[in-house]
Write a structure and sequence with these properties.
The complex is a heterodimer of chains A (763) and B (428). Chain A is built from 30 helices and 28 strands. Chain A has 763 residues and is of the alpha+beta class. Chain A folds into 4 domains: 4-102, no CATH class; 179-366; 375-554, D-amino Acid Aminotransferase, Chain A, domain 1 (2-Layer Sandwich); 572-760. In chain A, strands 2-18-17-9-10-11 form a 6-stranded mixed beta sheet. In chain A, helix 7 (104-111) packs antiparallel against helix 8 and helix 14 (250-265) packs antiparallel against helix 16 (320-336). In chain B, strands 9-8-7-6-10-11-12 form a 7-stranded mixed beta sheet. The longest helix of chain B is centred in the C-terminal third of the chain and has 26 residues, at 377-402. In chain B, strand 6, helix 7 and strand 7 (237-245) form a beta-alpha-beta unit. The N and C termini of chain B lie far apart (46 Å). By secondary structure, chain B is an alpha/beta fold. Classes of the chains: A alpha+beta (763), B alpha/beta (428). Chain A binds chain B through residues 391-394, 417-418, 428-437, 441-442, 484-488, 490, 503, 513, 568, 570, 572, 575, 578, 603, 636, 643, 645-646, 666, 668, 703, and chain B through 1-2, 49, 76, 113-121, 148-149, 151-153, 178-179, 183, 244, 246-250, 271-272.
């Protein structure tokens, strides 16, 4: 037993001399590394000379050894080894090297840049069938394989690889490859969103917390479409002329985009990919799916493309043929979003237009349950490492932020005109944004996004209606709602809630105060932030049983911007506006232009088309005014989903060059929090360092000099004659011209919760 | 930037001075009533959730308790000041006196922002507030109630602390409690019904049968809805209701000339008092701009929503048909608007009297708690009717006899009753 290694060596001598020769060399190197000086004597005389030369520093090529000279005497090497190593040690090493030899095929394949994803998938299957203990491989080999797999499946980014290699195994990639659809000879990857979620999941599963507070964390079953599928699709349909689209003018892109979508949708889906999607459907079964973009450029630090590319919900009901058709349509629409105006403007802004972009796609089961004719999760939301909306001075930035909604998370990531999410800070679980009963009720979520299985579509339903109809079936509903009774909002206790009779308000109070939810989110945020070395932005959902992680990407943050001092000696006539409430830190010096969408003028517009034109005009001004030298001021909420009368319809591309986006908020009652922080729209602003400033002219302590914007000459008709008819609604002011050379300075101080716009000498 | 210093207590004092002149009050009465009789300013230390200690400033002002225990809310607000509390306590003295309930005026507050406090911390603020002045408050001394950013929950914590300190059950210590925990029935109806009791009396006095009148109402919240209900029961027709539209961020007026149907409107109203515009149109209502409520050719205007609605500008648009303005809200008429209405001879039912149904029911809650017997809804409403009717009679009587504007008459009765109590006690 103790000299079992000798038996193996003898066996190899008879059956696989080549392997034994390789093992002998490894053993020789190993004993020399252990300090066996006499090992050099085992080299052939020619080899010894060559080695001596190698140790010198002569600048001449080394000689080549022939096979006999290079060979080592097996018996002598092992005899030497037995003097320096125990029998168990020798045996262990022989076993390790034998195992390494068994996986050489994978190593070779991964090193071959010509190998395709299909080849790798097959190799992973072969690896899996060997049923090896992966940890028995030499550490260097383990690392090499993992790193190579991370690069082939995800990215070359060194930060990502460094974070991921310690928490991944070959088995993880084997699992991944079983849910992969790729074109033949694919060299694609799975894209940023898949990469982020894969890594976050691995980090959690490798953590001690996975045995504790995070034990119910899951990732929904997912299939992946390799990123070069989109290229195959384009080639298959001869649509190659689309590639120059990205260099067109934004207006042209915007004009052509609907056409691009239609051309894509009416094109044929490559048969090999269709087969793959069919397999995905068989595996994922009936039940709603979400088709999410996962492009190569997505989710990188400093460019996370929040909500730029499409994510589409599918009810996934009907015959297999119908379901497959709907899935293909959705995938194609996600493909087309590469050529959309918003992502292209976003790329142009970050000098990413010339970088090659491909679109991977994730096909994920929607988290949730069937409740009546609907399908939805109990709750969903967004969690951020850094809290940029601190409603109390006790909340630190590191306390994080959670935006919660009932049902699908779309309402948490979009900016809405007429609805609210519930905000909580995981680091300060006891503090609430709203205190008075009236405020708690008024700013509670009013609608729920869900999938209507009967109508086979994504739908939005009033919360009250939904709860009356299905409230008692919703898992954990007692943690999600409170009862409004006697002027008081209270947690439901004792008897079951009578949804017909009792008035309910969605508060998530039970979830926040009597469940591990906030502790779980805080743990998750902290763990991922510390492992990835950057703040993170997560999306999650719960079906009432498990907590699902849906997305993990770097959080856009503006860095530690210092609070700007608010000057106290500015003469009244030079103050243009002051603001109190929800002010963040920032300083915008020397603004030369102001664009003011006049609230009354905008409110007076009667038809939707003209309101949309206001957004377009702002988009055009964004292109011609000096970058980061103008302020945009308008009524209501810029760029929100919902009623267009409550905010000018714009997207990122229309405001990307402004220094400050200001909103004139009309208040009723005593407190209107803007709860949009954490939505995709705000992430964009933060990432682009565009300052956001709410103005409350009707509130005490706030001042707004309307005539500063409405009296001077309006540049709009000159700059954009085609929009001249909107001159009563949009005012463009040349600040220097109007003030005899002064510029508009805006100082924002989050600590004092105060901001001031005033006229000053150019800095 | 220069800041406009607004001091609500100075305003309240100058208003008092004007009334004192009219009443020709003696110097001692003026000096006594111009300032509170007792004021407490104290520290409210709290152990925060993170282990630290923070000390908040608490105030309780008893403006005058010659007529009975002080009565008034406790507010939690970061900008609370002693002067703010003084002004509100004075207002409570006059209000309780006008409806002739045996209570004085008080108010309290804590300088804190509940947005910065967890519920556990807020509980400590509430309990420690009581601990600081447990002998200075009580069912027979000073009776608090909920106010800005305090809720029935805060009241129950305070009550529990008070009862623990005194070793007795004393539910009459505090009002605004939930029904079943010492609260009174009828609190929801109280203010709206009180408004209509006074309108009914005004109509009687003017000799106009209620069932031949029409009214227009601003607001569709709790006060407005119950006012519409009772007014309609009296046979009147509300032809126009205006309310805030949350989604459009403007208000609209909903008109049906033959009279709105309350149940119908309630069926299309969200919980914030916002009426669904499209559905209202479907039901045959005209949807007009929010201001239209005061342009209606009706007999009665009931502003029951916001401050400063009838002002120098809007008062010009009020048609000649309007005979009564009943102030369901606090301060809906500006001084300029008030003057114009007075000159036109419009019968004014001032807020001090018109919306006193709320404080009257708080008094009933206290009475029921003290006798530990709780009345049926009907009992509460009947007693409310009696109180409001006699309060109206007293004010209108003085107004008629001394040829005074109703607002001045109400103030003068309030001040006079308090001054008289002080005299009878020999304080002055």
């Amino acid at each position: 037993m103790s000299e079992q290694w000798r038996v193996i060596v003898e066996f190899l001598q008879r059956t696989d001399p080549a392997l034994l020769e390789w093992i002998t060399r490894k053993m020789f190197n190993h004993v020399r590394w252990k300090g066996a000086e006499e090992a050099a004597a085992l080299l052939s005389p020619v080899a010894r000379v060559t080695e001596e030369l190698r140790n010198g520093e002569e600048n001449r090529p080394l000689g080549r050894l022939n096979h006999e000279d290079a060979q080592l005497p097996t018996d002598a090497v092992f005899e030497l080894a037995s003097r320096y190593m125990s029998n168990e040690e020798i045996l262990g090493h022989i076993e390790m090297w034998t195992t390494q030899d068994k996986v050489a095929f994978l190593v070779h394949l991964l090193e071959d840049q010509g190998s395709s994803l299909g080849d790798i998938t097959q190799a992973l299957e072969r690896f899996h069938s060997l049923a090896l203990d992966e940890s028995a491989l030499p550490f260097s080999v383990q690392t090499m394989i993992r790193v190579a797999l991370l690069r082939r499946f995800f990215t070359d980014q060194i930060d990502y690889i460094n974070s991921a290699r310690s928490v991944t195994t070959v088995r993880d990639f084997y699992q991944l490859s079983r849910s992969l659809v790729a074109p033949p000879r694919s060299h694609g990857r799975l894209g940023g969103k898949s990469a982020g979620l894969f890594l976050a999941h691995r980090v959690v599963e490798n953590s001690p917390e996975f045995q504790g507070i995070l034990s119910d964390l899951r990732v929904p079953p997912t299939w992946y479409l390799a990123s070069d599928s989109v290229l195959t699709f384009i080639r298959h349909n001869h649509l190659e002329d689309i590639y120059d689209q990205k260099y067109l003018d934004t207006d042209q892109i915007r004009q052509q985009y609907p056409h691009v979508i239609q051309v894509f949708k009416s094109s044929e889906f490559p048969p090999e990919l269709r087969k793959g999607l069919g397999a995905a459907l068989d595996d994922l079964g009936e039940g709603p799916l979400i088709v999410r973009s996962s492009s190569l450029l997505e989710d990188r630090t400093g460019a996370v493309f929040s909500g730029k590319y499409k994510s589409l919900f599918l009810a996934n009901q009907g015959t297999k043929k119908e379901r497959l058709q709907a899935l293909q349509d959705a995938v194609v629409e996600v493909f087309a979003s590469i050529f959309g105006p918003d992502p292209l403007a976003y790329r142009a802004e970050r000098n990413l237009l010339d970088v090659h972009e491909e679109m991977g796609v994730m096909i994920q089961k929607v988290v949730g349950r069937c409740i009546g004719r609907y399908f939805l999760p109990s709750y969903s939301g967004v969690a951020l490492s850094y809290n940029e909306f601190r409603w109390s001075p006790r909340i630190r930035r590191e306390d994080g932020l959670v935006r919660l909604v009932m049902g699908l998370g779309t309402r948490a990531v979009d900016r809405l005109t007429d609805d609210y999410s519930v905000l909580l800070s995981p680091g300060q679980p006891g503090l609430r944004v709203n205190q008075a009963t009236d405020a708690v009720v008024r700013y509670s979520p009013r609608f729920v996004d869900l999938i209507d299985l009967e109508r086979n579509e994504f739908a939005t339903v009033p919360v009250e209606e939904f709860l009356r109809e299905c409230g008692s079936e919703l898992p954990e509903v007692r943690k999600l709602v409170s009862i409004l009774e006697d002027g008081q909002v209270r947690r439901p206790r004792g008897l079951a809630i009578d949804f017909e009779r009792e008035e309910t308000v969605v508060t998530f109070e039970g979830l926040a105060s009597e469940s591990p939810f906030l502790g779980k989110v805080a743990t998750l945020l902290e763990m991922l932030k510390s492992h990835l070395g950057m703040p993170v932005d997560l999306e999650f959902a719960s079906d009432g049983e498990h907590f699902y992680l849906l997305q993990c990407r770097p959080q856009s943050f503006s860095g530690a911007t210092a609070p700007a001092p608010i000057p106290r000696d500015v003469p009244d006539e030079r103050v243009v506006f002051t603001a109190r409430g929800n002010v963040s830190n920032g300083h915008a010096p020397d603004l030369t232009h102001a664009v003011y969408v006049v609230p009354d003028g905008y409110a007076a517009l009667t038809d939707r088309t003209t309101m949309l034109e206001v957004g377009r005009a702002v988009g055009r001004l964004n292109k011609i005014l000096p970058r980061r030298k103008f302020i945009l001021i308008g009524p209501g909420r810029w760029g929100s989903r919902g009623d267009i009368r409550l905010g000018v319809s714009i997207t990122y591309a229309d405001i990307s060059n402004t220094a400050i986006l200001a909103e004139v908020a009309r208040r009723k009652g005593s407190y209107v929090p803007d709860l949009s922080f954490g939505t995709h729209f705000f992430q964009d602003l933060v990432e682009s360092q565009i300052r956001y400033l709410p103005l409350y002219p009707d509130e005490p302590g706030n001042y707004f000099r309307d005539e500063f914007f409405t009296t001077p000459k309006n540049l709009l008709p000159e700059l954009l004659p085609e929009f001249g008819y909107l001159a009563d609604t949009i005012r463009v002011v040349d600040v220097r011209g109007a003030t005899g050379g002064r510029t508009l300075q805006v100082a924002m101080n989050g600590e004092l919760d105060e901001a001031m716009g005033y006229l000053g000498e150019p800095e | 930037m220069t800041k406009r210093a607004y001091n609500s207590f100075e305003m309240a004092q100058s208003q008092f001075d004007r009334i004192a002149d009219k009443l020709d009050l003696e110097r001692g009465a003026r000096e006594l009533l111009r300032d509170p009789v007792r004021e407490y300013s104290f520290a409210v230390p709290v152990h925060m959730d993170d282990g630290s200690v923070r000390v908040f400033r608490g105030y309780r002002v008893q403006h005058n308790d010659a007529r009975g225990p002080s009565k008034g809310g406790i507010r939690f607000h970061p900008h609370e000041t002693m002067d703010g509390v003084r002004a509100l306590a004075m207002w409570m003295s006059w209000k309780c006196a006008v409806v002739d309930i045996p209570l004085g005026g008080g108010k309290g507050g804590v300088v804190c922002d509940p947005h910065d406090l967890s519920m556990r911390e807020q509980e400590q603020v509430a309990r420690n507030y009581v601990r600081q002045i447990p002998r200075e408050m009580g069912p027979v001394r000073d009776v608090p109630a909920p106010d800005v950013m305090t809720s029935p929950q805060h009241m129950l914590w305070m009550l529990d602390e008070f009862e623990t300190i005194h070793g007795q059950k004393l539910p009459g210590f505090i009002t605004g409690k939930p029904v079943g925990m010492g609260g009174s029935l009828g609190r929801k109806e109280a203010t709206g019904y009180g408004v209509v009791y006074t309108i009914r009396e005004a109509l009687k006095q003017l000799g106009i049968p209620a069932d031949q009148t029409t009214a227009s109402v601003q607001g569709f919240g709790n006060v407005a809805q119950y006012a519409i209900q009772l007014y309609t029961d009296l046979g009147g027709a509300v032809t126009c209701v205006s309310c805030w539209h949350q989604k459009d961020q403007v208000s609209y007026a909903f008109r049906r000339k033959e009279g709105v149907h309350l149940g119908e409107l309630q069926g299309i109203t969200d919980r914030y008092g916002g009426i669904d515009k499209e559905k209202a149109q479907g039901l045959g209502y005209e949807v007009l701009p929010g201001d239209a409520w005061l342009e209606q050719e009706v007999d009665i205007l009931i502003p029951a929503a916001l401050e400063n609605q009838i002002n120098a500008e809007t008062v010009q648009r009020i048609p000649e048909t309007v005979k009564i303005v009943a102030e369901g809200a606090n301060g809906p008429t500006s001084p300029e608007g008030d003057r114009a209405l007075h000159e036109r001879g419009v019968f004014m039912i001032p807020d001090l009297l018109c919306n006193a149904g709320g404080v009257t029911t708080s008094y009933f809650e206290q009475v029921q708690c003290n006798i530990n017997y709780f009345w049926e809804l009907e009992d509460v409403l009947n007693r409310l009717d009696t109180k409001m009717t006699s309060a109206f009679a007293a004010v209108s009587d003085v107004a008629a006899k001394q040829d005074l504007y109703m607002r001045d008459a109400a103030y003068m009765i309030g001040v006079d009753r308090v001054a008289q109590a002080c005299r009878e006690r020999g304080w002055i």
